[in-house]
Amino acid sequence: MAKIKIISNPYQKVTVFQSFDEATAQWVDINREQNADSQLLREELCVGFFPFKAKQIVDVIVHEYSAGSEKIEIVFEGTDDEYLELDSICSQDDYPDRINLYKSGRYLENARDILPDVIDVFKELSPLVAESVSDKAKIKRELEKFSDASNDVIPICVIGNYSSGKSTFINALIGYELLPSSDEPTTAKIYKVSQSKHPDRATIKFEYGYKSVRIRFSADSYKFLTDPEDNPLVVKLKKLLDEIAGESIPSKLNKVLDVINGFANREKNESISDLIEIEAPFDDDGLWGKMWNNFVIFDTPGSNSASNVKHYEVLKKAMEDLSNGLPIFVSEYDSLDSTDNDKLYQDINNMAELDNRFTMIIVNKADAASLKKTGLTEDDRDRILSLAIPRKLYSGGIYFVSSIMGLGSKNDEDFIGDHNAEIFEDQRNKYIDPKSRFYKQLYRYNILPEQIKRKYDALSERHKNLLYANSGLYSVEQAIETFASVYSHYNKCQQSRLFLSKVIQITSDEITEAKRKKEAYKDRIHTNLEKEKKALIERLEAQSEESEAEYQQDYAAAMREYVTQATTTYTSAELTEMESAYRQAKAEEKDVEGRREDVRESAKSFMDNLGKNFGAAFREHNLSALRKIGADFSDGVKDIVDNIGELSETKKDAEQASSDALISTVRDMFTARIGEARQLLEVQSRAYWAAKTEQLKLLLSQIVTNSSALTDKKRTELSGIILEYQELAFDTRAEAIFDKTAFLHRFFGDANRLNIDKLTRKYNSEMEQQVLEIYASFETSHANSFDAWMRSLMATVIENIVEFSPQLHEQAEIIREETARIADLESRMIKLNDYTEQIRRMMDWKEA
Question: What is the pTM of this model?
Fold first, then answer.
């Protein structure tokens, strides 16, 4: 039997395949050297998002590894979400006859499950990030992306030719005609549309002549929130708003934006900012209005507009503070083979702010396309996928849509403009009357991974609003919702990790530079200091560094007995004894013995009655009595079987209850003993380093006392400074970060009867691992605290040795300040590294 393992890591955006080598009993990577012709190594299957490629992967495995009637064994390692997608594929059609699917014990957490924890970590480290980088300009972009990664905003970037109906498509999502639509190209502006927090409020914000213009709309009024000078555009807007004061918010927004578009186009006015921001209420009809996600939509200039010479630059600027954007490319059916945007396709694929694994291609105005009523054949799909736009951008799917019909399904069929209203009225019956000769269900033409299309089609078929479903808009909103709720979180988690790595690198660079400056000042002091004092400082520094190295080397040996003492483990016999006690207690509580006695009593009564009655009836040849005995026999056997069943159920309940009680006790003991271990190791580690500070003080004091470089008075004074120097202060904030007492790994499983040996091994291995992690955290944190204390002491000593020279004293003061700064930066580095490790572990592989 062929055994194939699929290892999918959506955080790192990679899928790896392995085959099982029976000879070595090991999993081996499928690679180019041994499997040069394997289709599993195609880039699109190795780096694409797994759910979109899952069926292709399964088909390749079946094609390459099938052997007669023998089933292929597929083992999956990844997230639960991805496994469920794979399972849905392997459970349909003829796959169950050809594949046995198993879930590996090694897994990754779903991003939507860990993202709240990642955000919590971000909230804790925000002040630390601000403190750790002196030049904020270095990470301005990263700080903004950090903020984006920790919020719930999902940017949607709509791209396409000016005549493709981008604005109408966005209006269909929002639910009314917010953006004016036109067959003429608009100016090279980006429209950023976000949802208003209040259904009766909206705002438009832009700049004119580098001055802010902000207008707020309510149901019956408008107000300019800024006080711009009366430029021609503002004058025109005020006049318009006075004329339409009684109209609805959607109508006001539409007409104001139409004026801004027209003004910019006619005047070729470059004074209007590239970004126009709109906050508006979204209609709550359809799936879009019921989503919990916070979407921000970017309407970009038409990519083939003659006026759009800086399309990509404008888009890049608008998106530069965001990440994890969903690209949506809108095109008409007859334009899918357009080649005039090749550079734009490449730019979209290379834009880090967009996740091009999910690019959606919208075939708009699909009701005007020459589509067969029977749907697309396989040849049709292959032909469409070979066209220029799909060939460059296809990843998440191609969706056939009539934006005007979708908009009409949400806006109560009430359009602002006659053009869209006329098209809607002409086409409406074709979407709501299944008996119509030209009945349209555009979602049936969608080109998607088969299992995803099957799911979306089934949802569309069942939807009560035929206009909404058949326009294709419902399927599009399903895909957007899936991206926002499931897929987008992976990129947000990964962005957080990349951000921290950047901050750590910058902090490391600052430490290196601070150390360089410090050494430069030390060199200057040594150059100008008399020979004997220089020798004294060098001896003090050498002793400090030698002692620190010795203390760090001896730390492990000094702490070994406490690590052993902290690692409280169990033997199988001890847990078996605990289990026996619980089993006995639960058996008594459930009255297992009483049920067992019922079985014995029913069996005894049955046998007694059978022997007594049967003997008499047989001797008397009483047929009637014998028939009654037969009936009683059946009832008696049933009574015994029922009692045995009750006994079995009671024993099972008692076993379950005793297993639950044992697991609960083991969990509680684990948490309590991890806490005790942390306390023990912290106390002993602090005591070790406190003793070493006193030891180092004595060594340095002896060097000073025996030195001939200083006067008697100065030797006494400096020796006193050393011996009375402040006590070692431990970094308690770091210790709080390193606190592992809240260990919540899910490693104890529930069952009717526990495998005690396995439970013992798991408990002991986890206890050892956690104690070692606690030990390692104190080893790093306390050693760093000692190092900072020692360097501060040395800076003070040097300052006192050179204090009689004003120039040298000033430089010694700088050294002392730089020493303190370096210690502070290194302390922050430890904390930043630990936060990074916490996030890494959230996204790392775990064992079930």
Answer: 0.68
